[in-house]
Structure formats: structure tokens, C-alpha cells
Amino acid sequence: MNIQWYPGHMVKSKREIAESLKLIDIVIEILDARIPESSKNPEIDNIIGNKPKIVILNKCDLAEDTVTYEWIKYFKSKGYNSIDVDSSTGKNIQKVYNIVKETIKDKIERQMERGIIGRPIRALILGIPNVGKSTFINKLTSKSSAKTGDKPGVTRSRQWIKVNSSFELLDTPGILWPKFDDKKTALHLAFTRAIKDEVLDIEELSFEFIKEISQIKPNVITERYNIELSDNPIETIERIGKKRGCVVSGGNIDIIRTSNIILEDYRNGKMGKISLERPRKVDCNENER
């Protein structure tokens, strides 16, 4: 399955991000807690250079708590303050500003020594499409400052958003990278709708999803759909379709409709908390050696 999606506006956004660095004090990188590795744009760190950064693990309500905690420890071992956030409910949102201040406290102290007092902290919000940046901003500001949607590509231009007199955000469009070299990364982005469904083969995507979930959390499928899991993902999909009434003339199963049900159930958390990725132990322990 060849998955690629890199709209033209993403090229412009990448250039604008680089140009915006001189205007901001810190970068807030938002990742999907279910797929922190796949949802991290590998080009971001090169673009921002030495700018201070914190990592937000958003949508933590959809990820396994213990695995998310592993990721927080992982990013801290890499030198980044990190926190799990649920932008929909506001979990830990109010802690973000304090983490930002803590991360750039040396810069704030230098400004005070130079007599610069009361200047608002300016943060650049970065993240891939559909990672929840706009929902995060709206919850942080307690108002609908940024457009939101359940499809990638809603934010198309930069915009300054005032949180309060001490904190300002620069929102940017979600950007992917031109080519996914790793198939699993591409699939995980597609599973979580960071890539538009319209450019994907939904049947094949649900096949790949069932294949992966059957390996890492097989009970999820049997408990959600009350079926017996098959070694063949297609048979599993057909059993789900039959259970959900996706039957067409001749007794055949509507695979497209069934595939959409499966993917939406995962994306909306109806299968429970599922983390598709966890940090490698070698990475977690490397700073302890």
C-alpha cells in the first residue's frame, strides 16, 4: 500500500515556520499520544535548530496511560519537558504555561536583568495534520480562536493568538514530510487520519489495521464486535461486517462500509485506549549508561 500525501500548502508552511523562528521564544510540538514516533515530523528539529522546545502528547485519552508515561520519560531523557494532554476535556492544559516558563526561565531571567519586564512569552505551535493543534489552542485560550475539524488540513495559514497578557501563540498549518520511507509510519498516520481518507484505499487500510491490532491487542476486536478472531484479516473484517449488518444483496458483506466502521471505532476511542507505539528500551535507558 503506497501512502503519500503532501499538498502544496505544506511546502509554503515549512518555509513560513523557518521565517517565524525569529519572532518566538519556544516551540510547542504536539504529538499524537497513540503514535508519538510516527506523528513526529522528522524535519522539525532541523528546522527549529536550537530553539527551546516542549513536547505535548495530545489525545492521551485514546492512548494507554502506562505507555504514555513511558513516552514522557523518553522525551525527558532526550532533554525535552513533556506532558500528556487531552485537549477535548482540558486535562493538564493549565500546566502547559508553567512548563513553558520553566523551560525558558534562563532567557526570562536574562531579559529581566536587561530591564525587559512584562514582555509576553511567544510560542510556536507545531504538529502534523489532525494532531489536535486547534483544539489544544482553543482549550488553552478558553475560546474558539482556531478553526477545528476532524479532517487534516483545516488550518491553512499562520495566525497569532493571545492566551493572556503573558502568553501568545503562533498557530501554523499541520505539515507532513514529502516521503514516508517506513510503511508502518505511513499506516499509523493513516489509521489516525493524519492523511486524508480520500487519498487512501480504505479496504486495504482496514486490512492492515486488523492485522496489526490482532498482533498487539487481539482481545480488542473480539470484545468490541463479539466475534472470533480469524488468522485471516479479511475473514475478521467479514465477520465484523456480518455482526454490524453490513450485508448487501446475495448475502455478501459491504467491505467498504465495514472498513469505515472499524477505522472510526478506533479513531473515536470506541475500542478503548490503544497505543500503537512505545519507545524502544534502548532509547529510554541510553542516558543511564
TrEMBL record:
GO molecular function: GTP binding; GTPase activity
Keyword Ubl conjugation on entry: no
GO BP annotations, alphabetical order: translation
Protein name from the UniProt record: Ribosome biogenesis GTPase A
Keywords: Cytoplasm, GTP-binding, Nucleotide-binding
Phylogenetic placement of the source organism: Bacteria, Bacillati, Bacillota, Clostridia, Eubacteriales
Binding site for GTP: 58-61, 130-135, 174
All copies of domain CP-type G, residue ranges: 11-178
Role description: Required for a late step of 50S ribosomal subunit assembly. Has GTPase activity.
